[in-house]
Amino acid sequence: MKKIFLAKRNALFSSAGISWGASSLALALALLLLRLLAPNFFLHLVTPVFRSADFVSAQSHSFLSSFRDTAKLALQNERLLEENAALTNENRALAQKETVLTALLGGTSRGITAPEVLASILARPPESPYDTFILAQGSRAGITLGMEVFGAGGTPIGVVSSVLADFSRVTLFSSPGVSIHGWVGRASMPVTIFGSGGGTMSAELGRSANVSVGDTVFVSGPGQLPLGTVVRIESDPSSSVMTLRIMPAFNLFSASWVVVRDTGALLLDGLPHTTSTLP
Amino acid sequence: MMRGLITLLAFISALFFPWPLTALLAIIAAMREPLVPLALGIFVDTLYYVPSALSLPLSTLLGALVTVLAFFVHSRLRTSPVRDL
């Protein structure tokens, strides 16, 4: 009798049976489970990947910049140096003025007593579809829920919405659903600023308000802090209000570090969903 | 081979490149592997989603939607007489 030989096939390891879709789904679910069960360990695991993404981004940027006209770059560099020197002097004068005024009013100088944490950014938009940052500092460094996050120059950019031992997540003011109170224009008109996503914000004001493109938007902090600039005003003749489109004063897409500070402001109230079990 | 490459590229894109490119790669991958957009959506939300930023994990939901659409298109093509031509 002729014996028919059938090759043994393992259903788990057969190359023909591998579906890339099913494998990737299993991997994604495993990572999700890891984030839910051990969020701090999960972020430790992906940190080297985020760091290498930053490195690749920086290298590609410098590579692409090398194709630019060197004479033009030198001129731009010179102009920026002059601007920087002027701004430094102006900043020194303002700081001196503030110290004198604070002494006259009998207060203490800000920044000395307020504890602050310098944190590097692991992930940011536009890689992230949400307007959020992942910071490489957490509760061990002194970060707590609701602390305010500032970019270079003291620009407020968001609020700490989730804290782990070594990492924290920041919800930016440009995130949809987030609202904060501020002022706009030369007359300091009070407005509620809403996050519009993609790093931008918007606000609504009466059509009669004296606001123009280029006006700075301020929010409260230690004094009035510049949040962004009005870049477009949308006004519908049939509506009694106009919409201000606001660009942040700080470039969220290329930020590499931020300062986290406890300002005492109740910023978590401005977030749409503050209670969650997801770490 | 091509399926694996596009799946891998889509996952790398979620970490290295802006999200619109990741979304585009997910749609391209869905043509051959319908489960990839769902997997990628879960992966992106695992990395970046914070409930305070948005009430729903948008990437997962959109990924699931694309996966359902891809399965629907695949099933229609499988029963279509055009396939036998």
TrEMBL record, chain A:
<dbReference type="InterPro" id="IPR042175">
    <property type="entry name" value="Cell/Rod_MreC_2"/>
</dbReference>
<dbReference type="Pfam" id="PF04085">
    <property type="entry name" value="MreC"/>
</dbReference>
<dbReference type="InterPro" id="IPR042177">
    <property type="entry name" value="Cell/Rod_1"/>
</dbReference>
<dbReference type="InterPro" id="IPR055342">
    <property type="entry name" value="MreC_beta-barrel_core"/>
</dbReference>
<protein>
    <recommendedName>
        <fullName>Cell shape-determining protein MreC</fullName>
    </recommendedName>
</protein>
<dbReference type="GO" id="GO:0005886">
    <property type="term" value="C:plasma membrane"/>
</dbReference>
<keyword id="KW-0133">Cell shape</keyword>
<feature type="domain" description="Rod shape-determining protein MreC beta-barrel core">
    <location>
        <begin position="121"/>
        <end position="260"/>
    </location>
</feature>
<keyword id="KW-0175">Coiled coil</keyword>
<dbReference type="GO" id="GO:0008360">
    <property type="term" value="P:regulation of cell shape"/>
</dbReference>
<comment type="similarity">
    <text>Belongs to the MreC family.</text>
</comment>
<feature type="coiled-coil region">
    <location>
        <begin position="70"/>
        <end position="97"/>
    </location>
</feature>
<dbReference type="InterPro" id="IPR007221">
    <property type="entry name" value="MreC"/>
</dbReference>
